[in-house]
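ping. complex inputs:
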Amino acid sequence: MKFLAFLLTGLPLLAQAPAAGGRGPARSTFLVSRPIPDPAAVERGKALFVPACGFCHGPNATGGEGPDLVRSTVALRDEGGDEIGPVIRAGRPGMPPFPQMTDAQIKDIAAFLRNRQQEAIDRGSYSLKNVNTGDPSRGEAFFAAHCSTCHSGAKDLKGIGAKYENSVLMGKIVYPGGRGPAARSSVTVRAAGKTTTGVLEYQDDFEVGVRDDAGEYHGFTRGPGVSVAVKEPLAGHVKLMKSFASSGNDRDLHDVLAYLVSVK
Amino acid sequence: MKTFLCAILAAGCILAQGLDPAKLKQLPTDTWPSYNGDYSGRRFSPLKQVNAANVGTMTLSWVYRINMGPNAPGGVSMKATPLEVNGVLYFTVPDHAWAVDARTGRQLWHYEWKSKGGIHIGSRGFGMYRDWLYFETPDNYLICLDSKTGRERWHVEIGDVRLEYFSTPAPVVIGNHVIVGTGGDSLDVPGYLEARDPETGKTQWHWNSTPRPGEPNANTWPNKDAMEHGGGMTWMPGTYDPELNLYYLGTGNPNPVFAGQGRKGDNLYTCSIVALNPDTGKMAWYFQASPHDTHDWDAVQTPVLIDGIIDGKPRKLVAQASRNGYFFVLDRVTGKNVLSKPYVPLNWSKGEDKRGQPIPNPDKEPKLDGILSMPSASGGTNWAPPSFSPQTGLFYVSGTDNYSLLFATDDQEKPEGFAGKEINLWSKASLKAIDYKTGTIKWAHEYPGLGGGNFGVLTTAGNVLFTGDPMGNFIGFNATSGSALWHSKLTGPVANGPMSYELDGKQYVVVGAGDSLYAFALNEISAARVPGEARPRPTSPAR
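pong. complex structure:
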């Protein structure tokens, strides 16, 4: 029974194609400060680990009958097999010895475990599942009621579902800001009897910067006699964002996503 | 007679030797001897040479730009609050420490630590005991330097970098204890706080921020593995009440960070304010700001000590503007809740339980299909130090209204690490003045435009509040009304908590931004300096 469980969980992993040779995973050097193991060694180590160790430690080394080796202090303190090697060869109470393992094989297993640890550590490398759980027909009704003043599934948003990953599209439904032209505010400054209109390029409590149509920058000091009128292009989205956020659950948002994903 | 003479000699000797320990318990005037200036965490300077009437004439006295040598990494930011002792400023960035003349910004020494790794995200500065300085490194060493020379006296390991710990807090010195904490939530390791001996660095006590099997509140975790890998990092300096002899500390988030399915329960003492005896490490009480957090909302924000009045009665209070968006006031003798009230819009709480602790809404935990989080994981505020002015009775915090999508990335029974991802959408920074008696926002100053960020706050007896804005201005506000009185544009946003000290009759206000420290003072004040006199000048007992 246990063996069957092992086969069921282990086989799909064994069946996975090895990573393209030569290049390691792109790791964040900010988050990961230890050496990144050679991908070929990781693959060899995995091929050794899964049948020999995966039964107790789990095929992903996250534990089962035996300890989780992603969190294990022995495995984390290991360098090239120096800590795990003696344990593998001699065994432990409840763990059989593997005296036949060569130094090279132990090094490969150490590389596999280091890679598993770094997969957990390097949060930038996590992949989103991009699941879509919403109801497209409810989403279409919500869209008609709240979004159709500015947007249309047949016009400006035609084909949008194929353009973005679900998670990115979900963010854009809430607030499509970023630094693109759509998010840029326009501004009109009236000072000393003169009116300047353009793109709002800079603002704080003391200064306002306007880039006019000719590309010239005009800086103003705020104060009496200086009026600044900023037009936020995404005010509607800010309102929508606040209403989504206050609703207590994310059903409407998921439904609109499901609808937009379905828009061809 | 002999004893008396010895006592005088001993006292004189102490005063000539670096930091007089008595200064740690006084209001910060000519000395800023610890991260928050004094043990209360109020960051209130009693100085008033610079005040609401004249701050408009304040100008730059000096700038010190850090120089880490030819192999220096880019993007280093000055998160440390400098200490100022006997006319010298002491501060750190990861792996580096400096002493500069507090009157001129001239460098006196530079120390560099050869790192073995760890996340180089920040260093919040020094703790000081007499002549000796203590700071922590990304690879988790506590380093003791001689303040006169910058030479290393010793170093001891306080955490294992191979387990993904990294250390950022400024050590806090209480009596003969150097209190050190650590951080690190990349993998699932347990948090702890330690007291180290100032002479040797040896461990005096060790407090685990999660229980072990059989200990009280172990039942807030599903099993041994979860509690022993449950996080609760101790990455900010705490505060201290000498009368009660209690050290107040905010603890970090539980691990795995964004996934709670492997750690069902409240997960004590993560995301909590705890009161510890600094002599023994024994916990007197706890209050949990975020039971079963799944949003990275550690409750490490400074627990600020307020001697206030509630319902007409004088009370010893502790207040925190927590990362989860709540403002909490507790009785600091008992830990009993006085008030819990959001200071930014939030959508994750279903109200508060009878202890005053928020009740998280399970619908707002990160999910595979994403949730809209308000505030985002960076929180209503973050680690930037707040301030409390006893003159206005207001608690000031640099707050951010923000929104993000939070996704679970690991839905297995036992997830690991962060186990989730965030997409930030929208943020807006503001300065909020909160009435500690009611939790109501007396005034809020919204900075124009979008963009978040949290900036340290200092208040002064001159009724000026100093802080930063998202565009890199260092601003002096009227602490009562919130109107801006003065500003100076720095080369980057304020990165630390501003501080202030007076030397030779001149009040300086010092702030860190980017890779530089900036010192400001009133334009018309010329400090009384004696030609030929050696600087920095040690404080003599007669002064």
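Chain A touches chain B through 49 residues (CB under 8 Å).
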